[in-house]
Design goal:
single chain, alpha+beta, FAD/NAD(P)-binding domain, Enolase-like, domain 1, 7 domains, about 15% strand
């Protein structure tokens, strides 16, 4: 997995392995050979039977010298040496140790007052390098500390999978027969890259190795854990559950209802079927994202997603929320799956996302490229760099194209405020560049219409000298914060709505969001700033500020709903940052806040922002962090020559 991760980032990768075949502890020789063949086709060079003698280089790595004389040039050497229990502290404390810290079934060490869990322990002669048994150990330890004298840890058969897109591997239990009394049954098709092997002992399944098709892996694992007598299934077992069920006259489908309650579904987080079903039933969950949030099942590598969805369908029937539409025709993956995968798999380029999800078009299309560009910007602020080629023309040239191919320029006016100096600069620009129309907008700004494309940098340069920045009237981001004059001038005003609006706009400008965002602050319930039809509105009242969310104007007018009431401007700003970040992180690209709130439910938004103070503060902190990289005025950059090719006039063609 590490080698493939480096390869995906454009590096030339060579893998040195001590043994003749790969993953020899998890795969038998034929499966290991198939794995090497498939990864070799992906451009990874292999040096098996390779014993490292020396890493060469004085100040940094220059290569690896193998004992048999082979030499591999290298700029970077990654050592994957496995896990070794750290027993130093336990040994110094006088605890009994061997390879690890010795523990009993209740996770107590040789000192009954001290418990130990994790990779550092040794239980019944076994040490642990996978996460699933560690979760079980932690549960037993917690139960014992809480007074449950019956809780014990028992090691279960463990499964191994490989997290490389397009390479499906599963193994559990014995890799080969222990002696002549064991049976090995294999099915192999090299042309399809298919290999299946099961090991039987005394009529029971004790091992399975799958390569190419792994859907039956969890079924085999449960047969092992349950010590099911499979003697009657011997002739059909290697062909998988569908074949076995068909032979028994059953529907060839995964029977989630028949699955034991303690069947482990999510190995990464140690979540069993019973835990998932109880959460769905007791908390009335109806979507994959809700199950992930409450149980962590499918929230890490995502390989158990289909099983979690199967349990969701089993428990909810027709009430389960329908599957989301695919991002585009290039993929079957939904927006939620892509967003989750970007974070869970740490995908940081569009190529990595497309490869991870098996995009049908390697370069993507006009629908998915802008979406992926936004999702990566949101997930990795400061690490991922905006791909302007994946933006629509308005965002690429930072101005709105008009029907005659000229552009409109809307400078930002904080909270609708302006100054004589700014107005003079706008007038001068309009005269200098012969801009035909100057119009006041509904968002309390001034729009310069009819600007030639080649004049845009000059217009921005002159406006910038007056201290004006882009109003992002073209952007999937914050457009305006509309205000009324509030308590400073109005006899009905209860709070300083203009001042708060300016603070909100200066905090939020420049942010990229799934769709355009408009805010407003009204100084009293008379609502002159129309805060009740904005993505987020604030209505000032005598007792403080009502925060409203999920509204919009336009064709489908939607009125906001009350999120909460707060007492101070500081709280308003915190809620605004948290709300926008929640929207940024969870909405689908091109989904306005109104349909997003309608889709997830106002109760969900309240749960995340009002009821969870720590979570709200964390969301706001992530928003503020992202703004460090977002609040760079694009007009200033381009006035200085950045992306100059975008604004060059097209040459006239002779005779045209």
């Amino acid at each position: 997995e590490a080698a493939w991760g480096l390869k995906r980032r454009g590096m030339s990768v060579a893998l040195v392995h001590l043994m003749p075949t790969l993953m020899e502890r998890q795969l038998d020789a034929p499966a290991g050979q198939l794995l090497q063949r498939d990864l070799d086709r992906r451009g990874i060079a292999f040096f098996t039977n390779g014993q490292t003698e020396e890493i060469t280089g004085a100040d940094r790595a220059e290569g690896v010298q193998l004992a048999d004389g082979r030499f591999i040039p290298a700029d970077l050497v990654v050592l994957a040496i496995g896990i070794r229990p750290n027993i130093d502290l336990a040994k110094a404390a006088g605890l009994e140790v061997n390879r690890g810290i010795m523990v009993f079934d209740d996770m107590r060490t040789s000192d009954p007052e001290i418990f130990s869990v994790g990779e550092c322990v040794e239980h019944r002669g076994q040490v642990f390098g996978l996460v699933a048994p560690l979760w079980d150990q932690a549960k037993v330890c917690g139960a014992r500390l809480a007074g449950d004298e019956e809780a014990i840890f028992a090691s279960k058969a463990l499964a191994t999978s490989l997290k490389i897109t397009g390479v499906d591997v599963f193994s559990a239990g014995a890799l080969m027969a222990a002696d002549e009394s064991d049976d090995e049954i294999t099915l192999r098709d090299d042309s399809r890259g298919l290999y299946k092997k099961i090991v039987l002992r005394d009529g029971k399944l004790v091992g399975a190795v799958l390569y190419g098709e792994v859907a039956d892996g969890q079924w085999y694992l449960q047969l092992m854990r349950d010590k099911t007598d499979v003697s009657a299934l011997r002739e059909r077992l290697v062909f998988g559950r569908a074949f076995v069920d068909a032979g028994a006259g059953k529907a060839a489908a995964f029977d989630f209802a028949a699955m034991a309650e303690d069947t482990q579904i999510c190995g990464c987080n140690g979540v069993a079927k019973g835990t998932i079903c109880a959460a769905i039933r007791d908390k009335k969950l109806s979507s994959l994202s809700e199950v992930r949030a409450h149980t962590k099942a499918s929230a890490s590598c995502g390989q158990c997603t289909s099983q979690v969805e199967g349990l969701l369908a089993l428990m909810t029937g027709d009430s389960a929320k329908p599957a989301k539409k695919a991002v585009c025709d290039c993929t079957s993956a939904s927006h939620d799956e892509v967003r989750h995968g970007i974070l869970a798999r740490e995908l940081k380029t569009m190529d990595a996302v497309r490869e991870a999800f098996g995009w049908r078009k390697p370069e993507g299309c006009h629908k998915c490229r802008p979406a992926l560009n936004y999702y990566l910007l949101c997930a990795w602020p400061g690490e991922y760099h905006d791909d302007s080629r994946s933006r629509f023309v308005n965002e690429r040239v930072h101005a709105n194209i008009q029907k005659d191919s000229t552009y409109s320029v809307v400078p930002r006016m904080w909270g609708g405020l302006t100054t004589p100096g700014e107005l003079h600069a706008i007038a001068s620009v309009a005269e200098k560049f012969n801009i035909p129309t100057v119009k006041v907008t509904g968002g309390q700004r001034i729009d310069l219409l009819g600007v030639k494309k080649e004049d845009l940098p000059g217009v921005w340069n002159d406006l910038g000298k007056a201290g004006m920045v882009s109003g992002h009237a073209y952007a999937k981001g914050l457009r305006t914060v509309k205000t009324c004059v509030g308590s400073e001038w109005c006899r009905f005003g209860t709070q300083d709505s203009t001042g708060l609006g300016v603070k909100l706009e200066k905090m939020c400008w420049g942010s990229w969001t799934p769709h355009k965002v408009k805010l407003a602050v009204s100084g009293c319930p008379r609502n002159c700033a129309e805060a009740t039809i904005k993505d987020m509105g604030v209505v000032c009242v005598e007792a403080g500020y009502d925060i409203l969310v999920g509204g919009n104007g336009g064709v489908d007018v939607r009125v906001t709903e009350l999120l909460t009431r707060v007492a101070t401007e500081v709280e308003v700003l915190e809620y605004a940052g948290a709300y926008l970040q929640l929207y940024r992180e969870e909405a689908h690209y091109l989904e306005r806040t109104a349909p997003w709130v309608a889709r997830v439910g106002l109760d969900y938004v309240k749960k995340r922002l009002v009821e969870d103070e720590e979570g709200r503060k964390a969301l706001n902190a992530r928003f503020q962090h992202s703004q460090v990289f977002a609040q760079i005025d694009p007009w200033t950059e381009r006035a200085m020559g950045f992306d100059a090719h975008e604004f060059a006039a097209l040459p006239e063609v002779a005779g045209a």
